[in-house]
Amino acid sequence: MTPLERLQAYNRGEAVDRMPCVPIVGNTAARVIGAKISQFRGNGALLAQAHTEAYRLFRYDIIRIFTDLYTQAEAMGAIVHYPDDETAYLAAPAIKDVSEIERIVPADPERDGNLPHHLEALQRTLDAVGKEVTVTAALTCPFTNASFLIGAETLVRLTLRNPDAVHRLCELSLETSLRYAKAILDAGGVPSLTDAMSSSTVISPRQFQEFSYPYLKRLIGYIHSRGKSVTLHICGRTNRIWDLMVEAGADCISIDNDADLLEAKEKVGHRVRLMGNVKPSETMLQGRPDDVCQAVLQCIAQAYDNPKGYIVASGCSLPTETPFANIHAMLDTVREVGWPVEPEGLLAR
To answer: Which residue range or ranges hold the Uroporphyrinogen decarboxylase (URO-D) domain (predicted)?
Structure first.
């Protein structure tokens, strides 16, 4: 089955050859074509080539066009540093003080920063393999993007000292998110939502409900209005906000390895699909193929019977230097398990 055929059949409860599987390949794609990460900047054709070839090599079920979390913030004025061959990082936020908020304007994804190049990569990837596999583009959610506009520590302090400023930054970020989501959908892709700063590792559930949830709900509502489902990834500990993630409209929750997959199934599995959560660093990067196999089997044992479905996946984006053998091991293990899953033999393998 092609990935599209597999996911469509799985969604309908029909027979499939195996469970859906998504090792979340980010900049590891550069290694597939022997490129440096910095070469992706301003080069949609190369970014598309990397993700297309990575998909063809490993044959996973969803492609995610991604380089870093800062593409929207950079397009709004943040300064991003691009090392020669490592993932980009935030060098300076767009503003230093709330008095400068009025200087910020929402980004035009067809013109500003690297967004046009990511859209080009999306379109080229869709043209190459879009008839057989879902192609998504990473979209940074409003609260996290707001943290890149003024600085993460400053934004968290402002939630207590100046909540109105936080909401203004989130509104500006939401407008950029909506514009970028529209461009992704217009191209034929699907936005893949990531919201690292909304983690309970960073802010409290109360702060999430006040400053992140309303903007997530509006963003997800727009994507739903365009007929697409939504996968939402929030890093770190999220068990105290799973219900809110579902209420915001997420159709699938990507569970970080800091969270418990079995607990997620028990708490919200009757309401939402789950995805995860093989450890990206400890297992996928540093482990051996046998370690990956055992971790995948454990995840399947915990969640294969989730009422709303389950996708085998890494807990977050894979580190750049993840061995190809370990990515193959994840897919090979899922293929060996097949469908339907026979739970008695999983952990005896």
So the answer is: 3-336
d(CA 278, CA 255): 9
Q: What pLDDT, on a 0 to 100 scale, did the predictor assign at position 13?
A: 95
3-state secondary structure of 141: coil
pLDDT at 285 over 80: yes
CATH code assigned to 18-338: 3.20.20.210
- Residues in contact with 187: Cβ distance below 8 Å, sequence separation at least 6, in sequence order: 119, 122, 123, 126
Report if pTM > 0.90: yes
Q: How is residue 12 annotated by DSSP? A: T
CA–CA dist 41, 35 (Å, integer)? 12
Please tell me the distance from the alpha carbon of residue 177 to that of residue 137, in angstroms, as a whole number: 12
Domain-wise residue ranges, the chain: 18-338
**Two structure tokens written together for 155:** 């934004």
Which pair of tokens denotes residue 205? 């559930």
Residue spans of beta strands (DSSP E) within the chain: 21-22, 62-65, 79-81, 89-92, 134-140, 190-194, 231-234, 252-255, 273-278, 310-314
- Measured between alpha carbons, how far apart are the two ends of the chain, in Å? 25
Helix (H, G, I), strand (E, B) or coil at 310: strand
SS3 of 212-268: the string is HHHHHHHHHHHHHHCCCCCEEEECCCCCCCHHHHHHCCCCEEEECCCCCHHHHHHHH
